Amino acid sequence: MALSPVRTVISILVFAASAPLAAQTLEDLDTLSDQTVDEETGIAAALEQTSRGDLLGALATLERVLTLFPESDEARFNHAMLLCWIDDAQGALVEFDRLDEDDYAPGALEQSRETCRSVTAGGGQ
What we know:
By secondary structure, the protein is mainly α.
């Protein structure tokens, strides 16, 4: 099954560039903890956090998803892109390297790596 990262990349690019980071209440954290028990719900929650500009919250949500679902390519891809946006190209490239090129359209992961390098300070690691 070929996964298309285009929707995720566009969402992250559009929303991350314009929205400020947001704080969370304990109630919000409890809700997110419950949501990350399910892979799809956890990823959706992270995308929603990203749309609000809460990049660090989205990273934490995806890390919880990856703890429960370490083989989740979608969570790992989103995690990598968010690492790019917080200027952690090295961490993002490690995450991209854990993904299987055969699960994506030809050249998609390389294009994502290049996008990461171009948005991080100093052009990546």
